[in-house]
Amino acid sequence: MITLHHIPFSRSFRILWLLEEMGLTCELKQYSITDGSLRAANFKAISPVGRVPALEIDGTTIYESGAIVEYLTETRPDLGLGRLPGDPERVAYLEWLGFAETQASILASLNMQHLFMGDPTPAAPVVLKLEAARLAATLKAMDRTLADRDWLLPSGFSAADTMMGFNLFSAPYYVKMDGFPNVLAYIERIKARKAYQDARELDGPQEFYKKDFYDVPQA
Amino acid sequence: MKITLHHAHEARSMRVLWLLEELGIAYDLKVHNFFDKSLRSPEYLALNPAARVPALEIDGEVMCESGAMIEYLCELFPDKALGRPAGDPERMAWLDWLHYAETIGQHCANLTQAHIVLYEAHMRSPTQMSLEARRLHKVLGRLELQLADGRDYVMASGFSGVDCAVGYGVDIARRFVRFDEMPMAAAYAARLAARAAYRAAQPPENATLIYRKDFYEVPNV
Ligand SMILES: N[C@@H](CCC(=O)N[C@@H](CS)C(=O)NCC(=O)O)C(=O)O
Ligand SMILES: N[C@@H](CCC(=O)N[C@@H](CS)C(=O)NCC(=O)O)C(=O)O
To answer: Transferase among the record's keywords (chain A) (predicted)?
Structure first.
């Protein structure tokens, strides 16, 4: 029995999507980013930091999305979604898992400052501008990679792609995507996958964004 | 095997430098100044287009993510037993704590940016700084809990590569969060600091440092 603690359109979507790719069913426990349910006592008992994902599996609980991706692919090697030690793509695979969190940390910081600090936000425009520029730089790096391949790794789709599950939904709220045609085409390829569509079906409505684009406010 | 680590004192590259020392293997070290243009030189951008440290050149490949480097180096030298390979009873925890170290790292990076890189008051938001410090504190609560059973290191079986990742994070976090209510984590940091490999990875005297104050208070809102 696998239980995923989940918020729609957050980092836990990476896991929801990967589980669908692997054909593993889980019990889904839904929380909301806005209603304080992450701070409730029953969730505190599950996640000491009060964040999602939290995955109950094999008798324990694991929290970090990157670790969950590694663990699931290692323990189910026959599904071929990881690149395990000895694989020629091992380094690239680990690098993309790390890259995904580097990029996600910029998005998390933008979410925090644009969405969760009040309206109008007391965030510093200099920081918002800097973070958007850093985000654009990570998208540019992806765009370069995706120029000659369909998925992040040359050999084809892998769990590293599912780490982009939160990132690629969130990024267009902060950066205009027209400059990254290969990333846009990649997003379309992702949306065409059956497992992705099934995961979206289970996901629930997003409660983060109230408009289509968050510009840097004028100082 | 040829290994070159690109490093800036007190940056995330310290994790990898420390691990290389723990592994006791041969490597070349290139130290960059975090504040001048050296990370933006064409030669360095060819290695790491994001202009960040660390970068690790290893047998013709270039790596840019410290967590990936730690995992890979531990795999390459299994006899040093600093990883917990697939099938090990601590494997899941080892992976979780390796990635957890980067959760600490992200909050520290946001705080470093606000307190140190953006040094003028109008460039920063006290609301954000205080929120980041509180979130970091909460993240560290998980470490305090893990150490509550009296274990010396994050893995019950003993020191491992994840201590280089988490330990570095704790070191930086101490500049932004008070550890008075986290005695286990404070003792853990002291235990790590006593290791020879940790000391070998510390900046030499007169080095250009990122952190020049012991503690960075949140400015008044
Ligand atoms: N490094 C963690 C980050 C987890 C995380 O920050 N999750 C966010 C959602 S994307 C969360 O739960 N935020 C709620 C909060 O911090 O209160 C991972 O990769 O899983
Ligand atoms: N996720 C990367 C982050 C690396 C990173 O952000 N390094 C910082 C120093 S701790 C850096 O070089 N920053 C320079 C910059 O962002 O301009 C890792 O873990 O290696």
So the answer is: yes
Ligand 1 site: residues with CB under 6 angstroms? Answer: A 7, 10-11, 38, 50-53, 64-66, 101, 108, 166; B 103
* Six token digits for residue B169: 């994070």
Could you name the CATH architecture of A90-193? Up-down Bundle (1.20)
CATH of A3-79, one of 3.40.630.30, 3.90.1170.20, 3.40.50.300, 3.40.30.10: 3.40.30.10
Q: Is it the case that residue A219 has pLDDT exceeding 80? A: no
Contacts of A3 (CB under 8 A, 6+ apart): A26, A27, A28, A29, A55, A56, A57
User: pLDDT > 70: what percent of chain B?
Assistant: 100
* B122–A126 CB contact, under 8 Å: yes
Q: Which amino acid is at B130?
A: S
Give me ligand 1 centre to Cα A81, in Å. 23
Model pTM score = 0.98
Whether the predicted pLDDT of B119 surpasses 90: no
- Extents of the domains making up chain B: 3-80, 91-200
Write down the pLDDT at residue B220. Answer: 78
CA distance B151 to chain A (A): 18
| CATH architecture of residue range(s) B91-200 | Up-down Bundle (1.20)
pLDDT in tens, A76-126: 999 999 999 999 999 999 999 999 999 999 999 999 999 999 999 999 999
DSSP state, residue A215: P
Domains A3-79 and A90-193 equal at CATH topology level: no
Ligand nearest to the backbone CA of A64: 1
Q: Which two tokens stand for residue A197?
A: 């569509």
0.90 surpassed by complex ipTM: yes
Contact residues, chain A, for B141 at CB < 8 Å: 48-49
Q: Tell me the pLDDT tens digit for each residue of A135-145.
A: 999 999 999 99
CATH number of the domain located at residue range(s) B3-80 in this protein: 3.40.30.10
Q: Phi, psi (5° rounding) for residue B28?
A: -100, 145
Give the number of the ligand closest to the Cα of residue B100.
1
